[in-house]
Amino acid sequence: MSFNSGLEIYPNYEKFGFDYGPGCFGPEVEVRTLDAIRKSLKNPDCDGPEKVYAIAMDVGRNEHKEQLIDQHLLYGIVTYARGRLGEEPIRSQGHIHKHSAYANGWSTPEVYEIWQGTAIIYMQESAQDDPGRCFAVIGKPGDIIIVPPFWAHATISADPESPLTFGAWCDRDYGFDYDGVRKHKGLAFFPLLDKNNQITWKKNQNYHNQQLVVKKPRVYNEFQLESNKSIYNKYAEHPEPFKFVCRPDLFAEKWVNFVP
C-alpha cells in the first residue's frame, strides 16, 4: 500500500484476509458473503463475488492491547473484493451502531481512514421514513471521515477495478442495528455503476424528502484530527482526543448540525 497506516498489517487478497507483522495482534477475519447482505441491495437477486468483504475487529500493536481494553476503544480493518454487485458497487450493509451502555445509551460514532482504493462513506441522519440529511463523502488513501452517533451508514467501494481497504476506530462494545434499514429495503439512496464504472445515485422510494450532498472529506479540527498522520499513530502519540469515539455523550455540542 502507498499509505502508511501506522500498523504492520497488510491486506492479503489471495487469502482474502490480512497478514499481521511483528509486534501486531489481530483475529481471524469474518467474511461477509453476498447471500448475507442481499436484503440491503437494490436487487437482492444480483450476481457478484461470493465473498464481498472481510473484517478484522480489534487489531493493533501489542504494546497497546491492554490500554485499548481499558479505554473501551477498538480498531478494526476491512478489505473489499473487486467487482460489482449487479448494477451496484461492492458495499456493506447499511446499519446504525447500537446504543452503548458505556456511552450512557448513545449510539456511537465511527472514525474511518482509507488505506487503499476509493471509498464512499454514505450516511443519513435517520433510518425512519424521512432520512434527514444525506451525505456521500468520497475518500482517498489517507482521508479521514467521521460518521456521527445515531446515523445510518454504509461503506462503498467506488472503483470496481481496485479493492478497497480501510481502518476505523469504534467503541469496544460495538454492535449493529439493521432493523430500520431493512424495513425500508435499504438506505435512502442506492449507489449504481454506469457503463463507465462511474457512481450514480438512485432514490429509494421507501423513503421521502431525501436530498443527497456529495462531498470531499473535511478536516475535523474539533476532534484534533488533522490529516497529516495516520489515525493509529495519532492515537499512539496522544490517546486522550479519541475519547469521543466511546463517549460521544460527553461531546454532545459537537454533534449538533454535524457535517461530515
Describe this structure in words.
The protein contains 5 helices and 22 strands. The chain has helices at residues 34-37, 65-70, 179-183, 231-237, 243-246, and strands at 9-12, 17-20, 24-25, 30-33, 51-57, 60-61, 73-80, 84-85, 88-89, 96-97, 99-100, 106-107, 110-116, 119-124, 134-139, 144-147, 152-157, 165-171, 176-177, 189-193, 199-203, 212-215. It has a 6-stranded antiparallel β-sheet with strand order 4-5-7-18-13-16. A hairpin with a 5-residue loop joins strand 11 (99-100) and strand 12. The longest helix has 7 residues, at 231-237.
Helix percent reads 10-25%
Query: What is the end-to-end distance?
Result: 26 Å
What count of helical segments does DSSP give? 5
Strands, count: 22
- Sheet with the most strands, sense and barrel status: 6 strands, antiparallel
Low-confidence parts, pLDDT < 50 over ≥5 residues?
A: none
CATH class: Mainly Beta
What kind of assembly state do the chains in view correspond to? single chain
Order of helices and strands: EEEEHEEHEEEEEEEEEEEEEHEEEHH
Gross geometry: globular
Overall mean pLDDT score? Answer: 95
> Which architecture would the CATH scheme give at its second level?
Sandwich
Sheet with the most strands: spatial strand order? 4-5-7-18-13-16
> What do we call the CATH homologous superfamily?
Jelly Rolls
Radius of gyration: 17 Å
CATH topology value: Jelly Rolls
Structural class: mainly beta
Tell me the number of structural domains.
Answer: 1
